[in-house]
Write a structure and sequence with these properties.
Blueprint: E1 11-17, E2 27-33, E3 43-46, E4 52-58, E5 66-75, E6 78-81, E7 85-88, E8 97-100, E9 111-119, E10 127-133, E11 143-146, E12 152-158, E13 168-174
Antiparallel strand pairs: 1-4, 2-3, 2-5, 5-6, 5-7, 8-9, 9-12, 10-11, 10-13
Length: 175
C-alpha cells in the first residue's frame, strides 16, 4: 500500500493479502531495504497471518535514505511479493553556520559589524544580522540589527552606542 507518515527515522507501510492461493497464509508482512526488490532474506517485519489488510511501522531507519518496500505473504507453496514502492526518509534541517567578522570603523557611538553565512543548514536563511549587548553572548533577544537574508557576507551599522563601553557582538542567521 501507499507509504505514509514518513519521518527522519520512521514510516508506515502495509499491504493487503487478497488471495491465499487455496492454502493458509502462515505469515504476512513487509520486506524492505536500500536496494530494489527486497526479499524475506532482507529486513522483514511480520504482521500476522491470513488474508486481509495490514499496516506496520518501520523504525530505526536512516535519515535522507531511499528505501524499497514490498508486501509479502507465505503459504505452504512459497512466498509471494506485492508491487514494490519506494520512499525517502526526511533530511534533517540544522541551524545555519555563520561567522562573525572583525568590528571596524569604531567611533564613540557607532561601529560596523557583520558576518558571513557559510551554510544554510539545509533550508533557506530567512534572516541574518548581528546581535550586541554589554553582556557576553548576546542572542536575538538582545539588541539586533537585521541585514537581509540568504547566504554570504554582510555588514551592519551599529548606532547609538554608549561611549567608553564594552560591547559584545555576534553574527546570527535564522533558517
Amino acid at each position: 500500500t501507499v507509504v505514509t507518515d514518513v519521518s527522519f527515522t520512521t514510516a508506515t507501510v502495509g499491504g493487503d493479502v487478497t488471495s491465499d492461493g487455496g492454502l493458509m497464509v502462515t505469515e504476512r508482512g513487509v520486506v524492505y531495504g536500500t536496494s530494489p526488490k527486497p526479499t524475506t532474506a532482507d529486513t522483514k517485519l511480520v504482521s500476522g497471518k491470513g488474508k486481509g489488510s495490514f499496516s506496520v511501522k518501520l523504525t530505526s531507519l536512516k535519515d535522507s535514505t531511499t528505501y524499497y518496500v514490498r508486501a509479502y505473504a507465505v503459504n505452504s507453496k512459497g512466498t509471494s511479493y506485492g508491487e514494490q514502492v519506494t520512499f525517502t526518509t526526511l533530511t534533517p534541517i540544522v541551524v545555519p553556520t555563520v561567522m562573525t567578522s572583525t568590528i571596524t570603523q569604531i567611533t564613540e557611538t557607532t561601529a560596523v559589524a557583520g558576518g558571513n553565512v557559510t551554510s544554510d543548514g539545509g533550508t533557506s536563511v530567512t534572516e541574518r544580522g548581528v546581535v550586541y549587548s554589554t553582556s557576553t553572548n548576546p542572542t536575538t533577544a538582545s539588541n539586533k540589527v537585521i541585514s537581509g537574508s540568504g547566504m554570504g557576507a554582510f555588514t551592519c551599522n551599529l548606532t547609538g552606542l554608549q561611549p567608553n563601553t564594552t560591547y559584545y557582538v555576534r553574527a546570527y542567521a535564522v533558517n
